[in-house]
Amino acid sequence: MKKSKLYLPILAAILTITACDEETSSLGSDMMPTADLTTQISQEYDVTTQSYTAGDSVLARSTTSYLGQFTDPETGTSIKSDFLAQFHCIEDFQFPDSIIGDSVISTELLLYVNKYIGDSLATFKISVYPLTRVLDPDADYYTNIDPKQYCDITQEPITVKWYTLSDRTVEDETRRKSSYSNHIRIPLPNEIGQQIYQAYKTNPEYFSDSESWINSGLPGSKGFYFRLESGDGAMAYINIIQFNMNLRYHDSEEDVDTTGMCQFAATEEVIQATRFENYNLQSLLDDQQATYLKSPAGIFTMATLPASQLNYNDTINTASLTFTRYNDRIANGFKLGIPKYLLMVRIDDYLNGYFEQYRTADSNTSFLAKFNAENNTYQFSNISHLLNTMMNELRNGTATPNYDKVLLIPVEPTFDATSKAESTETLVKLCHDFSMTSARLVGGQSDRLKLKVIYTKFNK
């Protein structure tokens, strides 16, 4: 009997523990919400849109320069562009030791045209002015840059050039060669090249690096302003600019006389500042039947999101907004392109230095959408974070007058080159799109877009 008494407390404890396990085994699952406790609700809200002027300028960060004037046959708007460019000096720049005749044969500027829009036979006239003031490499430059602050256009230009983008002075056989690169050749007075060569012999320290070269005071060392004087019908995208001095020298290794070239080039290390002027945009801004996108430095679309109408007591799962492009109304071979990427960004963020701060789309309050040619749309598939941010600002009393407004801006993204698939690409840089593009979007006063929101609602 004593032995059985010893086992009774143990048996009771085991029974107690077992009972507790049975009673609490479902406690965790009872505390978790189940599908029966929540309901998904889908709702649509009207979104108003209007065209929004980019003003007289946008931040100009581009390694491409633009030259020409083009009138859009679709909208009747025109854009004109010319540019200022500095030239890079490689470290410890050197002329050949044995220049024949101790002189430069010719001096020239070459503008290499990567691509163009419009008529390659349209005739243009440009004037070239040497810059008298250094472009600050640490400054931000905008598309309304005033060339008069950097050169004296009241003086005669150092040269004038008439050109077409298809250079008819070059034989067709030469143009068809794969080695040929389309370019605009601008001869300069040879005294410029000769003066630079003589300075090299007396002051080689002027050529030790770009900073020394730019501050040397030599002709063209601060750069040039390529001023468009007349012409319409084409816009050139210029990706390489060279300031060349051609000469003959003796090649000691081959023991022959040969022709060579010493050059300074416009590169990413130095400033290239493009100036744009848009004309006749007001008719598009006044159009109430649609909204517009126009680059460069032209028109954005502004959307007002219905943040104040959303259900504050429910959780937003997803929210999507799609912008549809109208097809072109006329058929013409010289049409502008369609913006490939759009940035959706809050208007206050844009005005407070979004691009100046090197920000990129974070999928939180700014988003990137790629044009879908099959559906003719730009889709922002989930902007729920942005809507939640707007609702929180309303709750906290921190909402600004523009808290519910976003801009659609044509942009040029740069992705991580190591990414193999676009779906996994990492966005590393974002700047304004400076290519010639235009799009007319459904919206304005005639059509309201639909914001589609899916909520999770907890059942009572």
Report on the structure:
With 460 residues, this protein is of the alpha+beta class. The N terminus is likely disordered. It has 8 helices and 21 strands. Strands 2, 3, 4, 5, 6, 7, 8, 9, 10 and 11 form a 10-stranded antiparallel beta sheet that branches. Strands 1, 13, 14, 15, 16, 17, 18, 19 and 21 form a 9-stranded antiparallel beta sheet that branches. The protein is elongated, with a radius of gyration of 32 Å. 32% of the residues are buried. The protein starts with a helix and ends with a strand. The protein folds into 2 domains: 192 residues, no CATH class; 200 residues, no CATH class.
Topology:
Layout: H1 2-24, H2 27-31, E1 38-53, E2 65-71, E3 78-85, E4 106-118, E5 124-130, E6 159-163, H3 172-175, E7 183-188, H4 190-202, H5 210-214, E8 224-230, E9 234-251, E10 256-266, E11 272-279, H6 282-286, E12 290-295, E13 299-304, E14 315-324, E15 341-346, H7 347-351, E16 366-370, E17 377-380, H8 384-396, E18 405-415, E19 427-432, E20 437-442, E21 449-458
Descriptive keywords:
disordered N terminus, 10-stranded antiparallel beta sheet, 8 helices, alpha+beta, 16% helix, 9-stranded antiparallel beta sheet, single chain, 460 residues, 2 domains, 21 strands
Strand content: 35-45%
Unreliable stretches covering 5 or more consecutive residues = 1-32
Distance between the termini: 58 Å
Report the average pLDDT across residues.
Answer: 89
Structural domain tally: 2
Overall shape: it is elongated
Number of helices: 8
The run of helices and strands is HHEEEEEEHEHHEEEEHEEEEHEEHEEEE
Helix content: 10-25%
Radius of gyration: 32 Å
Number of strands: 21
Category from helices, strands and their pairing: alpha+beta
- Characterize the largest beta sheet: strand count, sense, and whether it forms a barrel: 10 strands, antiparallel
